[in-house]
Specification:
The complex is a heterodimer of chains A (409) and B (120).
Chain A (H helix, E strand, L loop, with lengths): L35 H21 L1 H19 L6 H8 L3 H26 L2 H12 L5 E2 L8 H4 L20 H14 L9 H13 L7 E5 L8 H6 L4 E6 L2 H13 L5 E5 L13 E7 L7 H14 E11 L9 H7 L1 H5 L5 H4 L4 H7 L7 E7 L23 E8 L1
Parallel strand pairs in A: 1-4, 2-3, 2-5, 3-4, 5-6
Antiparallel strand pairs in A: 6-8, 7-8
Helix pairs in contact in A: 1-4, 1-7, 3-12, 4-7, 5-10, 7-10
Chain B lengths: L1 H8 L14 H33 L5 H6 L4 H18 L1 H11 L6 H9 L4
Classes of the chains: A alpha/beta (409), B mainly alpha (120).
């Protein structure tokens, strides 16, 4: 129940710039039900994340400049050589410790809150998903698919069970937890359906590639499809494949898409490093959105080779990621961006962000002259949600502002 | 059965050794404290909803809540509650203070030895 008739003139709402109330979240047929207290828990976490980013974290830089940095230089007789030396020096600083401990606690609380909500209705959710996908040909699972080491070794972003484990056959509680809790981690910056990245890609392509008319589209590491659905909706006559290794995510994603009325996406369980089920030149567009940093070096190279093979001549590949660590990025910023790699179970994040992605794409067969570079911010309903394009702050790896790295074959 | 799943698994540890940024016992207390802080926010939001619903039904006037002034008896009752509350919450500090006043206090483990001796 919303007690106000006109939010814009309701007093405090006029100057309010924090995360929106969770109740604006987009719901679909398999979205978990949430009690008042469960919503309040996520509201708290959205605010906690914002507070940490805007009120607590900025002084980590002060602690580095005035304390941890000088301590390092006095001890070593030289400035730090790389971001790892900066991060390890920061680990001894009490302020970095406090910020880190609070950030980790908030991450764990977010998982606990979402898991409680999803698990207490796990059997109901599984039944709802089953009812939606039972008669659908939009889901293709492969129970024999090996789960890659880079997914199974540690649970990404401290999400117990990661993308692939289920508590009972047909369980989708991990996906429901991911879907319903991401709002708290991002403070709503990804929009109602956590699809602001997908909408950003659609807008970027419309603006930068106005003549691009893809018929066959492949999204690798599609997760529950939140970022590929906007693409499928924008190009309704295209046939879209959402590929992922995690069966529970795909089951939930297929049911979610069906309930949202999107029927041109097929959810396929598979590993992007082996696209042999598709012939050379099959796809006009291959997309990855926040996927590269969750791979391994070996798999990323194999995926790049396969992408080049399955792209049609003139086809486009686009990777959306947080900015790379270049020589222009201060070591302190690199160290801060590495936090998620080491303390939020994103083990490839650090290495991936220092790689020469252009070089790997050229090695995979693309011409340097055909490489694509751009930048996007999440596209959200600005009346309700915070817009990353308006935000001058930086949350080192969490902000909904990304780089586009791609190529035309 | 789903509630049993939630009770057993909602607080599960993710795979991957946990980093500690402080002394682990200190960080443990911080983690418990932050969960408590979260639950206070949950209660505050519920109370806010309750007040607004009651006001919408004409039962409670929120401005009246802000302007409420207790009678001396009510204030005394509240004051007593606050004293009892602080006593309970700060139990450990009171006991630490009492310990400072004692001399040569024995631990139960020491007394256990003493009272178990045949010649005691």
């Amino acid at each position: 129940m919303d007690g106000s008739t006109d939010l814009k003139n309701a007093g405090p709402a006029q100057t309010y710039s924090g995360p929106p109330d969770y109740r604006v979240v987009g719901r679909h047929g398999v979205f978990p039900e949430t009690t008042h207290d469960e919503i309040a828990r996520l509201n708290f976490l959205a605010h906690m994340n914002r507070h940490l980013a805007t009120r607590v974290m900025p002084a980590v830089k002060t602690a580095w400049e005035r304390r941890a940095g000088p301590v390092f230089e006095t001890r070593e007789g030289r400035p730090p050589r790389d971001r790892h030396e900066v991060r390890k020096a920061l680990l001894d600083d009490p302020y970095y410790q406090a910020w880190s401990a609070l950030r980790r606690a908030t991450m764990e609380q977010r998982q606990q809150a979402g898991r409680w909500t999803a698990l207490r209705q796990a059997e109901t959710l599984a039944a709802k998903v089953e009812a939606l996908i039972a008669t659908s040909d939009r889901l293709e699972l492969d129970p024999t698919l090996p789960i890659p080491r880079y997914v199974s070794a540690v649970d990404h972003h401290c999400m117990p069970g990661s993308y692939h484990r289920e508590v009972f056959p047909g369980d989708v509680s991990g996906a429901a937890n991911y879907d319903s809790g991401i709002f708290a981690t991002t403070g709503g910056a990804l929009g109602r359906f956590s699809d602001g990245g997908g909408h950003a890609v659609v807008n970027w392509v419309k603006h930068n590639l106005p003549d691009f008319r893809p018929r066959h589209i492949l999204d690798i590491g599609a997760n529950l499809g939140q970022n590929v659905l906007p693409i499928a909706q924008a190009i309704p006559d295209a046939e879209v494949i959402a590929l992922d290794v995690g069966a529970p995510m795909l089951r939930y994603g297929a049911a979610r898409a069906r309930s949202l009325g999107v029927d041109n996406v097929r959810f396929v369980q598979g590993d992007g490093s082996d696209l042999s089920r598709w012939p050379d030149g099959r796809f006009d567009w291959v997309q990855t959105t926040m996927t590269l940093h969750e791979l391994s070096l070996t798999s990323m190279k194999a995926i790049f080779r396969e992408i080049h093979r399955v792209l049609a001549p003139g086809g486009i590949v686009l990777h959306v990621e947080q900015p790379q660590y270049g020589p222009d990025m201060p070591l302190f910023e690199q160290a801060m961006r590495d936090w998620d790699a080491f303390y939020n179970n994103e083990p490839f994040w650090s290495t991936m962000h220092e790689l020469d992605i252009d070089g790997f794409m050229i090695e995979a067969g693309f011409d340097r002259a055909n490489l694509i570079h751009g930048g996007v911010t999440a596209v959200v309903d600005r009346d309700v949600f915070p817009d990353a394009a308006d935000d001058e702050g930086e949350d080192y790896g969490r902000k909904a502002a990304w780089h586009v790295i791609g190529a035309r074959k | 059965m789903s509630i049993d799943l939630a009770l057993a698994l909602s607080s599960a540890k993710p795979a991957g050794k946990r980093p500690y940024f402080m002394d682990p016992p200190v960080e443990r207390v911080l983690n418990i404290l932050m969960a408590t802080v979260q639950e206070l926010a949950v209660t505050r939001e519920r109370l806010d909803t309750l007040e607004r619903l009651l006001e919408a039904k004409g039962i409670v006037d929120r401005a009246g809540i802000e302007a409420f002034a207790p009678t001396p008896d009510q204030a005394a009752e509240r004051g007593l509650w606050m004293q009892e509350y602080l006593n309970r919450v700060l139990r450990t500090v009171q006991q630490e203070a009492e310990a400072l006043q004692t001399h040569d206090e024995l631990a139960s483990e020491e007394v256990a030895v003493e009272v178990s001796r045949l010649d005691a």
